[in-house]
Amino acid sequence: MWCGCRRLLQSRSPPAWLSRPPPAAGGSSPVRPGGGRAYAPPAERKRFYQNVSISQGEGGFEINLDHRKLKTPQAKLFTVPSEALAIAVATEWDSQKDTIKFYTMHLTTLCNTALDNPTQRNKMQLIRAAVKFLETDTVCYRVEEPAALAELQKNEWDPIVAWAEKRYNVAIGSSTSILGPNIPASTKETFVSHLASYNMWALQGIEYVITQLKSLILSMGLIDRHITVEKAVLLSRLEEEYQIQRWGSVEWAHDYDLCELRARAAAGTLFVHLCSESSTVKHKLLQD
């Protein structure tokens, strides 16, 4: 991706203000608090620009479509905190063909959410919402039967739970009860303290990954680079994959769902890392 981004960086030109409002950056329908994504991207529209570039403004890095400044659904200037993130977003826009498929532009949607904050939550509310997922974490809920699935969950999920307990020095455990495991208050507070080290933008990305994987533990393993995107998605879909292996899959549908989940999890993870990076892209990244 970085090779493709080099051209965008080199082609940056000073932005020009428009006499007419620039387009909103993908997505215009807010979702109620507690939902997944804060914006539901529209369907598609015809591509109306030729060139994509980035420029640095007073508030950060901006995206330019030809000479139009990108804006959010709430008409705020689309400004991101790091050059690396700006290049990644610009790549999403540059990769669109004859039509703009907003539903494929996960980084743009995440930036819109961070900028507009349509649910009006503060940092601590974001953190508490993320930690609350521990109470229903996918890898903590186990079955007793069928025996083959119970064994599969033990073999595949126990290692990631053990990693999290060691990594954060907490007790998590698992349960076959419908009520789930009894997560100690000290464990929740440890995760609250850890998440507090991230900025607001990164927290939006972390929550996004958690809602995709239905697991705080898998999300932190992915963001901490302990597991790959493919592994995280497989572990989040373990029961579904077990049923597919046993009963077969619906032609193309399961493959599409799998690929789409991988794309969303990867985009959210990339968003977290790019929001935590320095504002300047290292030359090595552009050369790789």
From TrEMBL:
GO terms for cellular component: mitochondrial inner membrane. Plays a role in the assembly of the F1 component of the mitochondrial ATP synthase (ATPase). This is ATP synthase mitochondrial F1 complex assembly factor 2. InterPro entries: ATP12_ATP_synth-F1-assembly, ATP12_ATP_synth-F1-assembly_N, ATP12_ortho_dom_sf. Pfam families: ATP12. It is found in: Mitochondrion inner membrane. It is a peripheral membrane protein. One of its GO terms (biological process) is mitochondrial proton-transporting ATP synthase complex assembly. Belongs to the ATP12 family. Residues 13-42 are annotated as: Disordered. The lineage of its organism: Eukaryota, Metazoa, Chordata, Craniata, Vertebrata. Keywords: Chaperone, Membrane, Mitochondrion, Mitochondrion inner membrane, Transit peptide. Interacts with ATP5F1B; involved in the assembly of the F1 component of the mitochondrial ATP synthase (ATPase). Interacts with FMC1.
